[in-house]
Structure to design on (1455 residues):
């Protein structure tokens, strides 16, 4: 049975034994429903003591280490560790996520606290700065962040009696924070004489600016404002870990095992010493307390939770126990009862009842325990120890039977034989010892075939053989009880194994990923009856596979919860449960096994939503029954949008060429040409890798995109308007519900989304900063306020924006495979759906994150690739089109039915008021009723149906349909072949727009005396275009191969076309029928040219470095030009038709005589004198200036000279079209540049009368027409043209003052060390114990301060020299002379109708009263103020903003 699909049964988490007490504090609370919330490993647990039931929150993927309870006590916030840790706010009642806060912290989240009304949440990170962040958690928005402290912070709390105030404490500090605007400002607590400076572990805020804090030595420090006013000494005998405030007062818990209750004025009420109670023990340490009414919850270091009822305080009730710190490896299940035994490095062995969910026995051993086994009769429990010994206990009373030590290294595995006679003990000494149970465990055999430590073993059912696995991944077999190795495989043929816990062997090949280290699966256990097995690995994942599992990379279901490595996993004796144990999280998880038949009943229960799916992404891919991908989709998924160089890299690249710039700037360079071009018309539409990117606007125009241009096309006037804000390929387009704005997303290193108005063609908003490489899908919400976008980075990140504010609302990793479409639910803008390769997910927004649930296919179908999706007539209905031609109908997340709609993939779908319209690869447009019951009408896109007004010709019948839109009584259809068609409801089809299909376009030729051009492309077509205002494609011909070049004969009657297989054709320019064809070459024909005049000769250049010359009349080859060292790129004839100029890929400029092809050497000066019939060359002194500074990175691919030889147009690899004055002598000439093409511009040509410039883009498949405008014609839109790469000094230098100010460098000043050397000891540093720095010999002055702000004094001590306790007099600023004018401007203003003057100098804002001459000061800045402005709005009188100098800049507002 080689079924690689995932098993259909599943596991459900039923109970977790344990509580995280180590390295955490304040993580245990009562909720409003009187349930208890805490966490263990990566699971948030809500425990109901009344029903003895647990609920689990599974939204984290690593250890949870912090928890806070919302003031209404229903919502819980938890923070985790990890490289990109996040905070989840979740509902303790439904255990569903409410909000996710992410993308700010690193390493982990150490503490959390809600403010009084529960609107804001503060978090502290584990990064080196212990960053403090304040969140608007519902929106998932960061309000403020600041570095917390250089050392660990242990607790943080909002002051519940003063708004916008917080207190944090930690290693040797306490800080009082105020939140003003978006800045958090700390003040350090002053310990003074009242108490020693020491580590503060916890705190609680009270009325009147009083704060109580618990210190490491057991004292309680009482603060008023920022000053320590008194201490309560000896409140505890050791560190106070937890402090909890409630209506009655305060509860504290400490390392001394005591809980103390205090009244509201911190007078002691009572003390509860847990060590003295029945359940207590020496060394008990309290980590968390929570006091509500007459109940107190206590969490301890050793994973216990006690509940104390106040009036019976000496009888605490133990409600949860778990293993203590240290790894947990040993697990065994009882052979006949629902019991599990575990043993850990904490040296305890514990027996758990799987029915009562309780610990029923524990026993402490001398050594850490590494493995366990129960004998077949259930009487003996054997434990393998870390020191190489093993102990056997009686299960019923935990008394010792024997203790044997035969080995030096840890015992990692032991097992009783099925007949109960032997115990096999495997150790890290690479051997297995066999002991006779009946002979009081006498050693009877030894197996010594392994070369590495023994990891797993199993007995055969007849107790005659064992199989072992070792650390090298070797599987060996031994005969029992002698221990002789079995090498003859025949002998083992019929052996039945009593259990299967080995990780290597044919039966379990499939549990290993295709490429993986052999050690990362720690444990396996097979359930022979259910034909499933469960595995535990180093990534905290429990997986369920089919058994046997023969082929590598089998599919599975995965379950998260354990945070670090899962060390062991076992089925219970009756296969009802799976028990798994975590190493570092030392927790025991009990999972309920839900077989297939039960699944059907539970289908109505929605799956547990989590940030990570239980049916893992890796697991669902390439399932055995997933259909082959459609060729077209496959092609699309293989397109890469990565560029070697992005346009964003240009400034950096230019920086790197600084030396060249300097030399160039000193020389006088040719001015840019006075004439300019303006984009006039674009032939092309991007359909081959995009979908649903074509819409009617409000006014009935059509909006779509091609290359880097957003096009608004008026079909009545046949004119286009262009949005040119993008600088690289646009990949997606969505229209606002009001049909007036569109959003377009482009390719780029940090790619952007532009929202622009189709009427004014002006951008309204540009969104950047979250998508790498490109944006492949966008969608507006129904209210038009939000925008969803999907990136083409490896995780296909999904982002939800408030586009008007330019604010990211939420983000999440979408899928490893390509996502094609995102749609926002029209009824609930918090919900969205994405579809893609083997992917369909329903998302809902939760704060800064999105929570996804896979569509539940159930027994209906299989995971298919989805190409499109729409929402239906109610909020829970959704419809998706698959790659096999079905439409899936979803309610909520469940698939309810599928309808066959098309042959081949359904690429586009559109919802109407009363139905749907779909389009597929089969070239059919189908109209459906609103339930997809009936197909009302179909339209086939056929050549025969083309209406007379069409702007071109259909290349083939039934082209693949990629976009559909409805409006104005028509259906608009976009095809893969780059056509836009308008289908009338009655049937006729009008072709509106057309371009080349996928493949690069290189060949371009303009007609010698008509407004016509020809193009030839890798899409194997030759096309003739009309450049007059009718703008249509006149003719098209399919070729046997793609082509790279073409040329009209001088009389315009013939057209020569060079193909990619080395052949070329000459065709009739009107009918495109063959006149002649030749093939002398194997490689691509790269350029082809008729000689001028009568067009007697034809020069044909190829990529195998030759130019062949043919006599057109006699159709014979008359000459070959040899001598080029690389492929030929450009060809030009001189006017006489006697000389050829050739450019090659090695940047050679060569000359050959025609017709024989003899190579000539011509001096540069002579070349300039020759009259050329055309100039398309990019080399030589006449066009030296067209090569950019970064010429190594980019190539100039094409050029063309106007007939008056004044302006040279060029196209380059960056997608720029540039105009230069000709001749462009001298390096780095100035130019005008235009962006519309996205990648490389492959060819440029002027029309015969220079009225238009025609350009073609390589991969963007578009043909663009630019009108040529003379100098007098003022450029109406300046934005099209940009000045050249560098501005030289001649453009008008700077005034000397401006130059000086421009060169002031503020940073050095701000970072400089003290200028004047200091002598002596400052008074407050005298007679003080040496600080840590001084003890380590660090000189204080040697560390440059980051800014000139004074370092915060560690303690404000009084000057003890005079011994008289006289307080230091304060200095008060009285008068400041000076005003900063040298490098500032507009920084003096009148206030109060001219009564006062405001200005600044140094770090002080000064308000000068004109009448009295007095000054008052704003002194909150700590470095030079550089700018000042006054708010002019009548509502905000006397509000001033000033900005200062500092590494981390901040702004202050003053009144």
């Amino acid at each position: 049975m080689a079924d690689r699909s995932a098993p259909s049964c599943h596991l459900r988490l039923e109970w977790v034994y344990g509580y995280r007490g180590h390295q955490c504090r304040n993580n245990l609370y009562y909720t409003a429903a009187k349930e208890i919330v805490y966490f263990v490993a990566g699971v948030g647990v809500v425990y109901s003591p009344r029903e003895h039931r647990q609920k689990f929150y599974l939204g984290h993927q690593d250890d949870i280490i912090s928890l806070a309870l919302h003031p209404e006590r229903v919502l819980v916030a938890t923070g985790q560790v990890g490289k990109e840790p996040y905070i989840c706010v979740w509902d303790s009642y439904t255990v569903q996520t409410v909000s996710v806060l992410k993308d700010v912290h690193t390493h982990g989240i150490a503490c959390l606290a809600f403010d009084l009304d529960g609107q804001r949440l503060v978090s502290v990170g584990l990064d080196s700065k212990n960053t403090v962040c304040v969140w608007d958690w519902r929106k998932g928005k960061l309000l403020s962040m600041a570095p917390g402290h250089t050392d660990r912070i242990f607790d943080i709390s909002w002051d519940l009696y003063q708004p916008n105030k917080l207190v944090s404490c930690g290693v040797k500090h306490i800080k009082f924070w105020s939140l003003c605007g978006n800045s958090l400002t700390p003040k350090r607590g002053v310990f003074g004489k009242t108490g020693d400076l020491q580590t503060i572990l916890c705190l609680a805020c009270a009325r009147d600016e009083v704060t109580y804090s618990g210190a490491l030595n057991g004292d309680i420090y009482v603060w008023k404002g920022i000053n320590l006013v008194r201490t309560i000494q000896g409140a505890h005998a050791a560190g106070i870990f937890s402090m909890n405030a409630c209506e009655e007062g305060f509860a504290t818990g400490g390392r001394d095992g005591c809980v103390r209750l205090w009244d509201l004025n911190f007078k002691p009420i009572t003390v509860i010493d847990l060590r003295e109670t029945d359940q207590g023990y020496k060394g008990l340490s309290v980590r968390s307390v929570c006091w509500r009414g007459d109940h107190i919850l206590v969490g301890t270091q050793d994973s216990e939770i006690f509940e104390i009822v106040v009036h019976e305080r000496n009888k605490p009730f133990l409600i949860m126990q778990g293993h203590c710190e240290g790894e947990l490896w040993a697990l065994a299940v009882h052979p006949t009862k629902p019991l599990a035994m575990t043993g850990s490095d904490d040296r305890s062995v514990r027996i758990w009842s799987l029915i009562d969910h309780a610990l029923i026995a524990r026993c402490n051993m001398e050594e850490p325990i590494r493995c366990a086994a129960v004998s077949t009769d259930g009487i003996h429990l054997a434990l393998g120890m870390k020191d190489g010994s093993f102990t056997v206990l009686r299960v019923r009373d935990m008394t010792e039977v024997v203790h044997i030590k035969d080995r030096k290294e840890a015992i990692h595995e032991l097992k009783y034989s099925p007949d109960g006679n032997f115990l096999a003990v495997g150790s890290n000494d690479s051997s297995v010892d066999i002991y006779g149970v009946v002979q009081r465990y006498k050693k009877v055999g030894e197996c010594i075939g392994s070369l590495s430590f023994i990891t797993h073993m199993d007995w055969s059912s007849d107790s005659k053989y064992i199989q072992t696995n070792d650390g090298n991944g070797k599987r060996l077999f031994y005969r029992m009880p002698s221990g002789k190795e079995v090498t003859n495989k025949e002998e083992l043929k019929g052996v039945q194994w009593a259990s299967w816990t080995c990780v290597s062997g044919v039966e379990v090949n499939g549990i290993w990923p295709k490429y993986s280290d052999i050690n990362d699966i720690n444990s396996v256990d097979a359930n022979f009856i259910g034909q499933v097995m469960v595995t535990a690995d180093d990534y905290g994942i429990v997986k369920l596979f089919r058994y046997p599992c023969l082929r590598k990379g089998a599919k599975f279901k995965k379950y998260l919860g354990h945070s670090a490595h899962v060390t062991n996993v076992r089925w219970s004796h009756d296969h009802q449960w799976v028990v798994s144990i975590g190493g570092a999280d030392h927790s025991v998880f009990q999972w309920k096994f839900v077989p297939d038949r039960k699944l059907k009943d539970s289908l109505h229960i929605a799956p547990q939503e989590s940030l990570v799916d239980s049916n893992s992404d890796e697991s669902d891919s390439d399932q055995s029954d997933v259909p082959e991908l459609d060729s077209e989709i496959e092609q699309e998924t293989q397109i890469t949008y990565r560029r070697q160089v992005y346009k964003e890299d240009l400034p950096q690249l230019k920086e790197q060429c600084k030396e060249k710039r300097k030399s160039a700037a000193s020389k006088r360079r040719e001015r840019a040409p006075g004439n300019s071009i303006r984009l006039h018309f674009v032939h092309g539409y991007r359909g081959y890798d995009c979908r649903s990117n074509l819409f009617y606007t409000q006014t009935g125009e059509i909006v779509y995109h091609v290359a880097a241009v957003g096009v608004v096309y008026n079909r009545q006037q046949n004119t286009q308007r262009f949005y040119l804000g993008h600088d690289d390929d646009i990949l997606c387009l969505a229209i606002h519900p009001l049909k007036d704005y569109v959003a377009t997303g482009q390719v780029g290193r940090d790619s952007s989304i532009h929202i622009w108005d189709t009427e004014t063609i002006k951008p309204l908003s540009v969104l950047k900063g979250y998508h790498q490489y490109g944006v492949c899908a966008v969608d507006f919400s129904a209210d038009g306020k939000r925008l969803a976008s999907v990136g083409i980075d490896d995780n296909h990140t999904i982002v939800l924006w408030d586009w008007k504010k330019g604010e990211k609302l939420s983000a999440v990793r979408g899928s490893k495979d390509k996502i094609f479409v995102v749609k926002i639910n029209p009824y609930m803008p918090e919900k969205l759906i994405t579809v893609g390769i083997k992917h369909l997910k329903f998302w809902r927004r939760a704060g800064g994150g999105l929570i996804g649930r896979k569509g539940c296919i159930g027994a209906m179908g299989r995971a298919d690739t989805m190409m499109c999706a729409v929402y239906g007539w109610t909020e829970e209905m959704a419809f998706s089109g698959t790659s096999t031609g079905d439409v899936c109908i979803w309610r909520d997340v469940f698939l309810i039915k599928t309808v066959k709609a098309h042959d081949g993939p359904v690429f586009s779908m559109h919802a109407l008021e009363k139905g749907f319209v779909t389009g597929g690869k089969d070239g059919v447009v189908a109209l459906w009723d609103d339930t997809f019951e009936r197909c009302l009408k179909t339209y086939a896109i056929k050549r025969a149906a083309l209406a007379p007004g069409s702007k071109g010709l259909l290349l083939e019948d039934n082209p693949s349909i990629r976009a559909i839109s409805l409006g104005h009584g028509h259906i608009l259809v976009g095809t893969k072949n780059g056509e836009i068609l308008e289908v009338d409801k009655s049937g006729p089809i009008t072709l509106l727009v057309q371009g080349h299909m996928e493949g690069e376009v290189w060949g371009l030729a303009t007609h010698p005396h008509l407004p016509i051009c020809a193009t030839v492309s890798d899409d194997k077509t030759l096309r003739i275009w009309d450049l007059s205002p009718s703008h249509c494609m006149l003719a098209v011909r399919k070729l046997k191969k793609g082509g790279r070049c073409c040329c009209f004969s001088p009389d315009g009657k013939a057209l020569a076309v060079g193909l990619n297989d080395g052949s070329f054709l000459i065709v009739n320019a009107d009918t495109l029928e063959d006149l002649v064809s030749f093939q002398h070459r194997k490689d691509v024909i790269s350029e082809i040219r008729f000689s001028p005049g009568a067009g007697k000769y034809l020069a044909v250049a190829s990529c195998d470095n030759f130019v062949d010359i043919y006599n057109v009349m006699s159709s014979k080859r008359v000459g070959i030009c040899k001598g080029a060292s690389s492929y030929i790129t450009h060809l030009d004839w001189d006017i006489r038709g006697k000389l050829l100029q050739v450019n090659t890929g090695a940047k050679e400029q060569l000359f050959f005589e025609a017709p024989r092809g003899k190579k000539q050497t011509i001096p540069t000066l002579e070349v300039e004198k020759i009259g050329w019939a055309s100039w398309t060359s990019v080399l030589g002194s006449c066009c030296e200036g067209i090569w950019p500074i970064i010429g190594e990175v980019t190539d100039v691919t094409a050029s063309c000279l106007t007939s008056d030889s004044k302006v040279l147009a060029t196209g380059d690899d960056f997608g720029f079209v540039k105009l230069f004055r000709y001749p462009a002598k001298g390096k780095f000439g100035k130019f005008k540049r235009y962006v519309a093409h996205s990648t490389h511009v492959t060819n440029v040509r002027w029309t015969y009368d220079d009225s238009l410039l025609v350009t073609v883009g390589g991969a963007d498949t578009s043909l663009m027409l630019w009108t040529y405008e003379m100098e007098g014609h003022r450029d109406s839109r300046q934005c099209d043209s940009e000045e050249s790469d560098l501005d030289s000094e001649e453009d008008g230098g700077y005034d000397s003052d401006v130059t000086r100010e421009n060169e002031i460098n503020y940073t050095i000043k701000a970072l400089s060390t003290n200028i004047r050397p200091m002598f002596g000891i400052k008074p407050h540093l005298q007679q003080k114990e040496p600080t840590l720095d001084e003890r380590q010999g660090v000189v204080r002055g040697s560390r440059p301060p980051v800014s000139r702000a004074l370092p915060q004094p560690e303690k404000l001590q009084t000057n003890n020299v005079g011994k008289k306790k006289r307080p230091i007099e304060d200095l008060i600023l009285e008068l400041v002379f000076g005003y900063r004018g040298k490098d500032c401007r507009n920084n003096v203003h009148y206030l109060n109708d001219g009564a006062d003057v405001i200005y600044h100098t140094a770090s002080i804002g000064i308000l000068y009263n004109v009448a009295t001459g007095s000054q008052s000061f704003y002194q909150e800045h700590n470095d030079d103020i550089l700018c000042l402005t006054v708010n002019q709005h009548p509502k905000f009188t006397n509000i001033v903003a000033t900005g200062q100098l500092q590494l981390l800049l901040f702004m202050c507002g003053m009144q």
Observations:
- The chain has nine helices and 109 strands.
- Residues 116 and 631 are 59 Å apart (CA to CA).
